[in-house]
What does this fold into?
Amino acid sequence: MLRLVRFVTATAAVVAIAGFATPADGAIANDTDQTSDMVQCDANGANCVADNGAQGDISAITINAGATTVTVTTTFRGLTSFDDGMQGEAVRIQTKAGVNRTVRLVRSGGQLLFDLVDASGGALTCAGMSQSIDFGAKTMQVSVPTSCLDNTTQLSVGIASVWSNDPEGSVVHVDDAYANRTTSLPATPSLSHKINVG
It folds into this structure.
């Protein structure tokens, strides 16, 4: 699982700060993602080919940016638990000031990784975070207190789904929710439109 965790960390690494777009009205955003737009690559992010499968393919995103908690729910066309492989997501949250935080939620067999990291991948302490994975509803959900996001009044979200049924993680499947399929892995999840908090 260590190799897979490293891959999720690399996928979630933050690069340049995107410019601000017009904010969405209200604190809830319901977005859809084009389906059948995943890529399959080796663990180094090379030799990528198109992947039209349902497993890990993001179809919808709900962002509830409440005054005290930000909750992101990702819906997939297919979501299965693997005994030997893994299923996970990296949820990037960028504040109005351009501060980036990434929530990592990865399930591999009986193990679970759930944490918050900064732009360099360093672990952050954040009391009050929660997560859920519902294989029946095909959803993954993470909640982060706004106090861990510098009490921002506006944010953007990016989501990368990552899965593999290979215990060594030599082949991975990735979907970037807010980007069209490319022939290479994203350096960081693409960002949504701006969403007002509160």
Notes: The chain has one domain: 2-196.
